Amino acid sequence: MFDPLQKSPPPNTSSPNTTNNSKTNTNTPSKSSSSSTSSSTSKSRKNARISTLYSDSYLKIKYSVTYNYSTTSSSSATLSFDIIYDPVSSSSSTLPKLSFELTNTSKKAKFALSSDATISKKTEDGVRIAAKKVTVGTTIHETVQVQLESMPSKPLTLTGILVYTTDKDKEKEKEVDIILPQSTFNIAKSISSSTFQSILADTKNPSVNVSGSVTLKKVSFADAVVTVSELLNLTCIDSMDTAATLYGVRVETSTHVCVMIKSKSTAVSIDVKTNSKSLSDHLLNELTDKLR
Residue 99 belongs to what domain range? Predict the structure, then answer.
């Protein structure tokens, strides 16, 4: 079965690093997180979530995304798929035929087979995972590389076609979409509180000249901080009783992504500052879809 990816740790509020007990610097940078994006030629990180792509009475497809970025070569995303055959009816002991084909629906992306691919084949405009016979309890695990020629300005949608034949010779076909959200291209980075405040205070800095905000009533302050950190891949810089700041950079430009979370009497407000209204809006949409 699919092994869950290790999630980003929640902000640590148990051991304050300042003399003020109500305020905690939650930033405990490792060697990789404290270095700038230009200090290494190749890095990668995993999104803290596994998604179900498709599910019916025969099959379940789960996938995860590992985004790999490099300063010396084109960037890529690795899509890891688990196609799980576990039918409701025990009489369906086999699937005579199964195929799952990803097509290149974006000019920004090209597919390539991973080096450990076992049953995948390259096609003219995508890749195809195919099996002649699948028995009960089978989990087909494959990884596919998505080469990105440039960073998308909006969530990147990849289209997949699932086709399989049941034991009763009934062919089923389903079109599914795999979405790589804008948070895929954020990199968590540790900075000091004073540096964070300097970025916000510099009104001439084009990296934080666009703001977006949302107020949520059905989420606690603590849950909001953890969710924003994990979902948007940001580092929690400071967390107090009613306010928190989080930070990251964009992989393609190293521009700032700044988030401020505040607890109000009956709600939580989240402010996002970037250099693009479209980016701020997309990141906020990801949060509201998750937290509402």
Answer: 43-181
